[in-house]
Structures are given as structure tokens and as C-alpha cells.
């Protein structure tokens, strides 16, 4: 295997009783980049993270993290990774500082280092004022920040973040995103699972869409969107009865014949420039009333819907595997 | 550092963590201070007058038994703590760290030894006020105290296993209670075994609780020991070894709930 990849998995398989959580998953994450593992609940995201962090042995396939095999080199591998999960895995009855110091000691950092590192991370995560307060007095956002700080104690070159912003308010989410971006700028490799498409869109260099234990698409956010075709013009008519006339009026400037989707006329276009003006002009000439005209690009949501046949939110509440 | 020294330092880090919790969540403190006091007083004064204990006053008879019972329950703090750690994802975090595989369990069970020491002290003080007195050489008394801590330590490993296998902290606590409570009652802890009906008596005589309680009576009160002291040590070491093995094996596979 090449050593250019910080995370590399081949044919990972894992079943729980009669459920196939992973059914031959391949992943490759170049060092210093972010892979977004995107999928609905129950798709196998958490199982993949648990295998790559040595918490769970795979039934089949192989994986290397930081060049070390998850099965045969687990103890060395654990010195190279940080994990922040769906839960804020911090001790409620310790202070923020005590939590980070404990993790530093358990990574066997040199004497004195755990305390210094704890202070440094509390500062960076804007928790200095709360450093000596018991974590049970922390808000949800503060706990998540502390949890992420704990994952960074040993400056691991590879970071696994399993739905790091689930349940956070928008402000805390954005703050956490900025922190993650900061780590990546420093050269950390990140594998991030999420069911939020905007999160993957913003943070991930590459996205692997996973559904029912399979990787069903892989690429950058733009590449995935391009798979669904390019830009289009959405026109809302005053009167839906004019649809046929509108389609006839617009067809000459469309890339493909326009269609009606959910009461909106959808027109694939050749180019952005001048298209809105031309479309409005043609509809005016045909005396067709317009409510709204908008240039649109497929959202990652639509990509996801097209790929999986269901939306990301649809399966929410199902048990995560 | 060698692997052994890492394991030791990891264990101490986690034992400290368990102990820090106690002054911070004082509800636990009640269970290993006030509750044992309550038991001593209730048994001594409610049952004491009704139970015949030839050769001893009831308080002298009772104290070794009730301390052994309290030791066997001291480990519930381990069960509770592990169950909470599993639920909150902390076990996952620990398992992803390059730390010793047994340290989370060893740290918790070690912390129980400290809380058990507090329980013993509190109970002996109350016992002495209620009329208990030692009747044995100092060396035997010290040996008896060590045996109590060893026995309590063994049961901490039983509770470690219970904590890792039960579905919630509440379930862990009641499972431990259901398993251990009858064992302590069908033993020589609170009444002379001879007073029980035949089948119970047969069970009580081979019950490790009887062996440990009888060993304590010999070490604290000078009762004839027979092989009970070594039997008690052997039982304690055996229980600790079996449940430490089962618990560590379980820990390595622990799955988040």
C-alpha cells in the first residue's frame, strides 16, 4: 500500500447478527486532507470509524491509519489518532482542565506536558474561564469543544470526528467548523462523518457517500454536484396552466427541453450569462406571467436524494450502526 | 517506561479520577458511610434481642458479618461508574487511547479499596460505641482488616463485570443487589447457621460468605478458625482472578449502547 494515504481501507466488512453494517467499503484519504463520510443514520459511518480507530475488529478487509495496520499494529496506531465521537466523552465530575490532563497522562506524554497542553487547549477552545469548573456545569457546546480538545491532546496526525456537531446550535457548529479547519491548515488529516450536507460541503475536500454499507459515490462536492448535471433556471409561473406555452417559448434557449417539477419549470441551461434576461423576454413576448425566476445549482441534498433515493434527514431516528 | 509501569501509572490516573468524584457527587458518600451505620444500628438494636448467639453478645457476633456484607457491596461504585462510562462514550475514548487495556477496570476497583477502608472505619467506630470489642492479638486484627479489603476488592471485580454487561447504571445496581443480597443472608453473617432449616443450612455451610465471616470472627474475636482464614483468602483470590479475567475480556469488546 502507498504511504501517501493517511487513511486507507480496502473491502471493509462488518456484520452485526443479520445486519450488514459494512459490505466492502474502500476509503483513501491523502495526508493533510479532509474526507467527509456522508450518509443517513444506519448507513455504516460509525462502524467504519470504530474499525479505523481499533475499537472494533472488521469481519473482512484491511485498513491502515498513519501507515499502521488496524489489526496487527493497534497499540502503535492509537498513539497517532484522536477520536471525538457523537457523545461528548468527557467526565462530568472532573473539571475541564482535569479531563484534558487525564487524557494527556493516558497518552503517556512526558512529565509536565499534560498540564501545559491542557492549559493551551483550554485557551484555544475558549474554555479558559471554565477550566476549573466541573464539566457537569458546562453547556452542550462547551462539552463538545472540550471533547474535541481531548482528541487533540497528543497532537495526533489523524483525527476521527464522528458527527461532531450533531445536536449543537448554529453558532457552536460554526465555531467548531473553524477549529477543525484550523487543524487541517496545520496538516492534520481528518475523517469526518456527518449527515449534514452543508457540513460536508464546507469542510470536506472529498466526500464518500455511504448508504447501507456501500460507498455509492465518491468525489469532491463539485464533482458530485456535476454528476447531476450543471446549472439550471427555475421559473415559477403565475398560472401553471401556461406550462406548455412556457416550455415552447423557452425551449430554443434551453440545453434540454424544460420540464415541470413540483409546479416549477426547470430548464437546464448552456451558460449563465444573459440567460435570465432572455428567458424573461421570451415569456413576456408570449404573454406568460412570472412569479419568480432563479438560477440554481443542484444542492448536495439533491445529489444525496438522487444517489440514495431518500433524503439525509429521512432516516433520522433509526438506530445508528 | 516499561509496559508494566505504564499499566501502573494508567491505573493510578484512573483511580484518582474515581476518587475525585466522591466529594463532588456526595450522594455516593451516603451509600458507603451512612448506610453501613444504619445497618449496624438496625441489626444490633432491632434483631439483636431476638437472635441467640451462644458464646457472644449479638453486637460482637454481628460486626464481622455486617462488615463482610458491606465489603461485598462496596464494589457497586465500580459497576455504577463503568456503566455510566459506557453510556457516555468514555469507554470508547479510553479504548482509542494508547493506554493499558486493564487500567480502566483496575483503577476503579483500586478506588473501591479506598472507599471500603472508609466504610470499615466508620462501622467499627459505630460498632464500638454500640458495645463491640476486639478479642484477639493485634496481628490478627490487622490481618482481619486486610482480609476484609481483599474480599471487598474481589467483589469489586464481580461488580466490574456486572457494570460492563448490564444495560444501564440502574440495572447494574439492582442486578448486583439481587445476586449478592441472598448470598449474604444465607450465611453465618447475621444468625448462627445451625438455626436455619436443613437445605438452607447445607447451602450456608459451603457459602463463601460463611467461610469469610467465620474467618473474621476468628481474627477479630478469637473464635476457633479451622481452615477458614486460608479458605477465605483462597476464595477472595479466586473470585478476583475469575472476574478480572471475564471483565477485561468483556472490556476489550465493549460496545457503545
Description:
The complex is a heterodimer of chains A (321) and B (257). Chain A is an alpha/beta fold. Chain A has helices at residues 45-52, 74-77, 96-106, 113-124, 140-152, 170-185, 197-203, 221-227, 243-250, 275-285, 300-308, and strands at 5-16, 19-30, 34-38, 60-65, 68-69, 81-84, 158-162, 189-194, 206-211, 214-219, 232-237, 259-261, 264-268, 290-296. Chain A has 11 helices and 14 strands. Residues 315-321 of chain A have low confidence and may be disordered. Chain B is mainly α and 257 residues long. Chain B has one domain. In chain B, helix 4 packs antiparallel against helix 7. The mean pLDDT of chain B is 90. Chain A binds chain B through residues 50, 53-56, 75-76, 78-79, 81, 83, 85-94, 98, 102-103, 105-108, 134, 150, and chain B through 1, 6, 9-10, 13-14, 17, 20-21, 24-25, 88-90, 92-99, 103, 255-256.
Short overview:
The complex is a heterodimer of chains A (about 325) and B (about 260). Chain A is of the alpha/beta class and about 325 residues long.
**Record field, number of beta strands of chain A:** 14
User: Which CATH first-tier class of one domain in chain A would you pick?
Assistant: Alpha Beta
Average predicted confidence as pLDDT of chain A:
87
* Largest sheet features of chain A: 6 strands, mixed
**Which architecture of one domain in chain A would the CATH scheme give at its second level?**
3-Layer(aba) Sandwich
Query: What is the share of helical residues of chain B?
Result: over 70%
Order of helices and strands of chain B: HHHHHHHHHHHH
Radius of gyration of chain B: 19 Å
